[in-house]
Amino acid sequence: MLAARLEGVRGKVVVEEMQIPDIGPDDALVRVTASGICRSDWHVWNGDWGWLGFKLEPGTVLGHEIGGIVEAVGDNVRGLKPGDRVTVPFNLACGCCTHCSRGEQNLCDDRVSPHLIPGSGGWAQYVRAPNASLNCIPLPDGVDELTAAALGCRYMTAWRAVRSRGALRGGESIAVFGCGAVGLAAIEIARALGGRVIAIDIDDAKLARAREIGATQTLNVRGMSPADTGLAVKAITDRGAGVDIALDALGSTRTANSAIHALRRGGRLAQVGLTSQEEQGNILVPMDKIVLNELEILGSLGNPQSQYAELLGLVAAGRLNPKRLVSREVSLSEVGSVLEDMDQFKTDGYVIITDFA
């Protein structure tokens, strides 16, 4: 099969032949028909997240937003058969630890990303899905593989952050900081759930896209401090109180602090974005403000396998449309140029590999 392999941190992406992965009795072999190029992939390629234990080995095949068709299953696999259309969550889980038994597969004690398991990276014609009975999610009618790749990481991450962690209720206000792929997904989801959405970015083109997706109001905060950003957000909320929920889709000192300053008393921050080289996981926050205003900070990672049914149901019913956020379909040979575009935030929406020849 063909696969796009990385030569190392900031290295070239080389498309070359490699063996189709073997599968064990608990695995499935999936033929990939759509695979996203995510900013998380860029972070790994950029050498980020070493402080989290991530290390990019030369020859790694990345890709964790996967839509495909089951080609073969191991003898122990249940609920899947060749020909089934599936997505494979990026938080591969064991299914038997305490967290998995609670339906929190995204917090699995043995969770692992596809690129850390040989033969499981999605920038290839085939992938091995371990523990496939749990880690292959069948797609309902009305949800194709391109849509599955579009919801594979950024969209389903936004879903959990808005629906479960942020616990948005109809009529509540939410400020989304960063109108990249996660932010746009959060905007669409929040509107579908009855939220009043303020989109915040420093790029007018991205804010225009946010309005198309469903943002009620937009705010360009280029050059503003976090405190001034918070005041600007509060100025367009009811009685100047601030928003019920803030969602940081980027992950930086500036965006996280801006989000905190924008909250009403008793508000909650859904923190989705992970930091880059500048912060390396550590940021300063206005702790006294958090205490005095009883603010909540809620980390949000991916989406557990147990919570896909509601998301896929809304997609199948047409209430959510991840494919709407697909801006480009590319080939394996274009992966390297897309990663380079991400250096300057030049990508818009979701870029999906659909040509694996």
Automatic annotation (TrEMBL):
Family designation: Belongs to the zinc-containing alcohol dehydrogenase family.
Record's protein name: Alcohol dehydrogenase
InterPro entries registered for this protein in UniProt: ADH-like_C (IPR013149), ADH-like_N (IPR013154), ADH_Zn_CS (IPR002328), ER (IPR020843), GroES-like_sf (IPR011032), NAD(P)-bd_dom_sf (IPR036291), Zn_alcohol_dh (IPR050129)
Entry keyword set: Metal-binding, Oxidoreductase, Zinc
Domain Enoyl reductase (ER) intervals: 8-353
Pfam families: ADH_N, ADH_zinc_N
Cofactors that this protein relies on: Zn(2+)
Bilayer-crossing regions: none
